[in-house]
Design a protein that fits this description.
Elements: H1 7-16, H2 25-38, E1 40-46, E2 59-67, E3 70-74, H3 76-83, H4 90-100, E4 105-109, H5 133-144, E5 148-152, E6 155-156, H6 171-188, E7 195-200, H7 222-239, E8 244-249, H8 271-287, E9 294-297, H9 307-318, E10 324-329, H10 334-338, H11 343-363, E11 367-372, H12 400-412, E12 416-420, E13 426-432, E14 434-439, H13 444-448
Parallel strand pairs: 3-4, 3-11, 4-5, 5-7, 6-7, 7-8, 8-9, 9-10, 10-11
Antiparallel strand pairs: 1-13, 2-12, 2-14
């Protein structure tokens, strides 16, 4: 596929918010250099025989088997398969192969409830039912396939995720149900789910006590946010102190095009304003002794962010003083198609953009994990709808975005070295952080058990 260059990119920049990668080549080259500096370490391995003598001249293969950095996507589609009895189907085998061939972590979903139109992974849509087995199947699938399970979300104060039956009780009783939800969910999966989105979207939504008067965008006061974030985080940590807890939010990277958002007081709501409020919340939580383990950036940007702006945003977020997680990234090429780019070329351009964006993310020292929101799973057979999708089969061809991400994650950012031990029996290399295996040929002397 041919990717537009030069004047074509410049024209698209003026008409459709795309950007010319050549213009950002210096930032991308600097990012690649930072990746080698901050994501790699020097290693030395010494090979000795049974008598403790160095083995010189031995050819060895150094193969990285796992990245220390977490790369993942959400499992909404897999949960749909499981609930509709497709668990043993070829479609799930295809899903599993593509997912595990690219990523090393899985965002397992369990909403307390969710909007009925989404048919999402729900825990307790009706009072008294307990449907955590669906979440359990996602976690079991992740662990069985060597993936790190992440849980999403523990608590989300928004009408569509706040059970309707809960609202008939006084607030004091509602809080008892919330505590039970938090404690039961975390304790049931203690030691198996290593990372949780503990609070979802506090910067745009009302606190539980203010849900009846919610007005989106609902910019809650810091005090009202603390009033529910602190106890939820405390309950979760009491049940599993070893897990990592992330507060996760959206709308802080770029301003939505063509929209003039105002709060209840009529003041403009911008991405920068929300970003500043979010980092201030983290600093306040730290002062209260209740800081989460990471700041989650959903990054539902849709339109495209250039590398310099992305780095500036990451520096802003890093001022919160905790590691950063991309939690729900997706991108769109719709603006390219509307500008007259043919779909095949637009798909190639999008792949290049996604590759550049994760390169910048991986190059920033504060970024600790990166999760897509359907971007990878949809690219091997799902529709473009980020919360559901079709049923992939082995005849589906992954999109250019899938292949680009896989090439970076599994090839460019994984270490493989063919080396020969020196006179001291040593090999030295610089490799990406993670797990490794070392392979070497077995000689006749080794087979015979003779010291060599």
């Amino acid at each position: 596929m041919n990717v537009p260059a030069g004047e074509e990119w410049k024209q698209l920049d003026e008409t459709s918010r795309a950007y010319d990668p050549a213009r950002h080549a210096p930032e991308l080259e600097a990012a690649r250099a930072r990746i080698r500096r901050i994501r790699c370490a020097d290693a030395e391995i010494r090979v000795l025989d049974r008598a403790g003598r160095p083995v010189a001249g031995l050819p060895v293969e150094i193969v990285q088997t796992r990245s220390a950095f977490q790369w993942g996507d959400q499992l909404w589609g897999l949960d749909t398969f499981f609930r509709n009895r497709f668990a043993e189907s070829d479609r799930v085998r295809h899903y599993t192969h593509r997912f595990t061939d690219c990523l090393n972590s899985a965002n397992c979903l369990t909403y307390w409830t969710e909007a009925p139109r989404n048919d999402g992974p729900k825990h307790m849509e009706f009072q008294g039912e307990d449907r955590l087995d669906g979440f359990g199947r996602q976690v079991d699938w992740a662990l069985a396939n060597g993936l790190v399970p992440k849980g999403h979300p523990i608590f989300w104060s928004i009408p569509k995720a706040y059970p309707e039956w809960l609202k008939r009780y006084p607030m004091e009783t509602q809080w008892k149900f919330i505590e039970v939800r938090v404690r039961n969910l975390v304790s049931r999966f203690r030691g198996r789910v290593k990372v949780w989105d503990v609070i979802n979207e506090p910067m745009w939504e009302a606190a539980p006590k203010n849900l009846p008067v919610r007005h989106w965008p609902h910019l809650e006061s810091e005090e009202d946010i603390l009033e529910y974030v602190v106890p939820v985080l405390r309950w979760a940590r009491e049940e599993d102190p070893d897990a990592k807890y992330v507060i996760n939010d959206y709308g802080m990277e770029v301003d939505p095009p063509g929209r003039d958002l105002r709060d209840a007081a009529g003041r403009a709501v911008t991405a920068k304003r929300q970003r500043d409020r979010f980092t201030a919340l983290f600093r306040r939580l730290a002062a209260e002794g209740a800081c989460p383990d990471a700041l989650g950036m959903q990054s539902h940007t849709g339109g495209w962010v250039d590398p310099a702006a992305q780095l500036a945003m990451l520096d802003d977020f890093a001022s919160a003083g905790v590691p950063l997680h991309y939690t729900e990234f997706w991108a769109s090429a719709d603006h390219l198609v509307k500008a007259g780019v043919d779909p095949e070329t637009a798909a190639a351009m999008k792949a290049e953009y996604v590759g550049n964006l994760i390169t910048i993310a991986f190059s920033h020292p504060a970024v600790e994990a990166f999760y897509f929101w359907g971007e990878i799973t949809h690219s091997f057979g799902f529709r473009s709808d980020h919360n559901s999708g079709g049923l992939p089969t082995s005849s589906n061809t992954p999109t250019p975005t899938y292949w680009k991400v896989r090439q970076l994650l599994r090839e460019e950012w994984m270490t493989r070295e063919s080396l020969v031990t020196d006179a001291d029996g040593c090999v030295r290399f610089r490799g990406f952080h993670g797990d490794y295996s070392m392979r070497y040929p077995i000689s006749e002397g080794m087979r015979a058990g003779i010291p060599f």
